[in-house]
Design goal:
394 residues, 2 domains, elongated, 8 helices, 19% strand
């Protein structure tokens, strides 16, 4: 009996062992693989595999609902999300614009990019069947940059706007400050999509950089401070930029009208406080040119010959005979004629103030054709403590 049982066990062992050996020998056969998987309940692997160069990107179709038979069971939204959010980010090389900080500086050449051919990819998404369990090359195409070396060489060929303001030629310190700020922003080039910040490009406005004491506004009162006069430069730039049809992104006005520009056409600035900024919303670069003589300051905006700007109508500045320079009898004491407590309401309304440095300022709404206002004005600066940002030039 024992011999008979032992024989049966031996026969079963040989059969099992033979089956295992056969499976190992035949495992390279894909049909055998799939049969075994289905028998034990694993099911075949199905995927979409995309290729670009030497890199491949694989999506497991089980994770997006595929039943292994009908492509209609695939969640197309999930496939689209994978392609547009993951694969696209990996395979694309965006073009790089040519760059030049200032007119006359060395030019960093442009570089063409490689991007997905989105039209062809969308055709794929109409029927995913041809992509299942195959490696498919991602359709790519060349994308040229917006700004070329040629553009930068021609960026000063076409004047698209200009604005002139006037000042007292006898105020030496203030004129020095105007000259320094004007020189700092002269010849700067702004590429499409880039933002110019007055404070960043011309500051800091301190004695170490040559700025002199001149009339400034401290919390709505006239006094003396280093850098007085730079707001005339930012205001002249603002009006020229507005005439050119560029996008204003940061702007604040003084609480009391200044004499060198029309009402609500000024742009107050100060280190650590309000700033004037604009964005180049055109598809070509623009350049800032600044000139100055004994009693006037002119800012012009230039670009390439083929640019077609959307110009705006902006009122001219008062002539030099109309300019009145505010005087401070005692440089150590503010002029009490200006309002001292013209604050911004907590509800965000705009009765008389949005300037943290000059309580009582409001964003400009004056433009004869179309207002060009920043999306979000500078927020107010609370508290009564005097800070560096509580000072504005005039």
């Amino acid at each position: 009996m024992n011999k008979k049982l032992a024989s049966i066990v031996a026969i079963i062992f040989v059969i099992v062992l033979g089956g295992i050996v056969a499976c190992f020998l035949l495992w390279g056969d894909e049909s055998v693989k799939e049969t075994v998987k289905e028998t034990v309940g694993i099911g075949p692997d199905h995927k979409i595999e995309l290729k670009s160069g030497d890199k491949t990107y694989t999506l497991d179709l089980k994770k997006v609902g595929y039943d292994g038979k009908d492509a209609a069971t695939i969640d197309k939204n999930a496939v689209e999300k994978w392609i547009w959010k993951e694969v696209k980010k990996e395979v694309e090389e965006p073009p790089k614009n040519a760059k030049m900080k200032r007119i006359g500086d060395p030019i960093q050449p442009e570089k063409a990019g490689r991007v997905m051919d989105e039209n062809k990819v969308r055709d794929w998404l109409k029927d995913l069947t041809p992509l299942i369990d195959k490696t498919t090359e991602i359709p790519m195409k060349t994308k040229e940059p917006q700004v070329t070396t040629k553009d930068l060489k021609n960026v000063n060929k076409k004047k698209i706007s200009g604005y002139t303001t006037y000042f007292d030629s006898n105020n030496t310190n203030r004129n020095t400050n105007i000259r320094l700020a004007a020189k700092a922003m002269d010849r700067i080039v702004v590429n499409p999509g880039e933002t110019f910040s007055f404070n960043k490009e011309t500051g800091p406005h301190n004695a170490a950089r040559g700025y002199k004491p001149a009339t400034v506004i401290v919390k709505g009162e006239f006094t003396q401070g280093v850098g007085g006069g730079i707001c005339q430069v930012s205001s002249t730039l603002y009006n020229s930029v507005d005439r050119a049809g560029l996008k204003i992104t940061r702007l604040q006005h003084h609480s009391k009208s200044v004499t060198y520009v029309p009402v609500n056409r000024d742009a107050t600035v100060s280190d650590g406080g309000p700033d004037f900024a604009f964005k180049n919303n055109y598809d070509k670069p623009i350049a800032i040119r600044v000139s100055m003589d004994d009693n006037s300051l002119t800012v012009k905006i230039y670009s390439v010959p083929e640019l077609k700007p959307n110009k705006r109508s902006v009122p001219d500045a008062p002539k030099k005979s109309q300019i009145k320079q505010e005087k401070v009898k005692d440089p150590t004491k503010p002029n009490a004629e200006l309002p001292k407590d013209d604050k911004v309401p907590d509800d965000g309304s705009k009765p008389n103030a949005t300037n943290p440095d000059d309580k009582g300022e409001t964003p400009s709404t004056e433009n004869p054709e179309e207002p060009n206002q920043p999306d979000q004005p500078d927020p107010p600066n609370g508290g009564d403590e005097k800070k560096e940002s509580d000072v504005n030039s005039v």
